[in-house]
Design goal:
single chain; about 170 residues; alpha/beta; 3 helices; globular
Amino acid sequence: MDTKEIVKEYFGKHWTSRTSTYRYSNHTIAEKIASHETVIDVGCGDNEFKPLVKNLIGIDLINPKADIIIDIESFETTELFDVALCLGSIQYGDTADVKRQINKVINLLKPSCRIYWRTNTGTRDHKNEMVKIVPYYDWTIDKHYEFAKEFGFKVDFVDEDLYGRLYAEWSRN
């Protein structure tokens, strides 16, 4: 199975959201988004931010609660967004995969924009055995700084969240 098929299988059958339980990357992110800002939620899962953020489009590879069922690399629109939520979505495959997906997200954003991240540090803490074959990218705080700089962003905040995850806020002005 390729990376996309593994992610589809795992998140389509075995995953449940725990967004509300994170220290930083929880629903309070919605309070950081102004009512006029447009938002793309990449890998939106159950689309939990939809009722909290006025101008949000949630895309997801598999979840029927998404506004559009599609992977980030296939998503096309002429609209540019103020904010991207990448909460547990850009973290599968190798460095080339992650950079390609970051580039795709960035190409969907306005020149002045923000990205809110939840990234996995390689932790395999879900209960289903299939989690052992999910190809998590091993994010680090240093990787956030490296990638932000490479893609013309600055890291405004980064810290360890819960469950072996990192939370970060990037901006570009």
